[in-house]
């Protein structure tokens, strides 16, 4: 997810004109790991813009995916621990907080 973003801006050619669009794309890709796809699309079927993404209510569990994508190793560990384990509960709380924080700092 980050590889394309980092490589794009490490080139010798100036890319500042692509910065805003690429940041929106990166935030959208990140959120798609946790938020239902329909929440990231507007009524016309287009991707939400940065200002519209800021209006998402990330505290509403209705917008969350049933199981956020966190990678295969982390998923395996979370499954082994079980849904009621304190570490799993803390992880899910922090994921929700990070989602909210990311939207507040995205330009």
List descriptors.
52% helix; globular; 0% strand; mainly alpha; 107 residues; 5 helices
Radius of gyration equals 16 Å
How many helices? The count is 5
Shape: globular
**Helix share bin:** 40-55%
Number of domains as seen in the coordinates: 1
Major sheet: none
Structural class: mainly alpha
State the total count of DSSP E strands: 0
Mean pLDDT rating: 80
Beta fraction of the residues? under 5%
Q: Report low-confidence residues grouped into runs of 5 or more.
A: none
Report how far the terminal alpha carbons are from each other: 19 Å
Textual characterization of the structure:
By secondary structure, this protein is mostly helical. The protein has one domain (2-105). It is 52% helix and 0% strand. The protein contains 5 helices and no strands. The longest helix is centred in the last third of the chain and has 20 residues, at 86-105.
Brief account:
With 107 residues, this protein is mainly α.
Which secondary structure elements does this structure contain, and how are they paired or packed?
Blueprint: H1 2-9, H2 19-31, H3 50-54, H4 72-81, H5 86-105
């Amino acid at each position: 997810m980050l590889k394309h973003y980092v490589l794009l801006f490490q080139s010798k050619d100036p890319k500042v004109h692509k910065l805003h669009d690429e940041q929106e794309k990166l935030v959208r890709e990140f959120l798609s790991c946790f938020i239902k796809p329909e929440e990231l699309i507007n009524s016309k079927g287009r991707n939400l813009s940065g200002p519209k993404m800021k209006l998402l209510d990330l505290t509403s569990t209705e917008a969350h995916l049933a199981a956020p994508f966190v990678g295969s190793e982390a998923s395996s560990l979370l499954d082994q621990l079980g849904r009621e384990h304190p570490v799993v509960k803390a992880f899910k709380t922090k994921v929700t907080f990070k989602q909210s924080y990311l939207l507040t700092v995205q330009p």
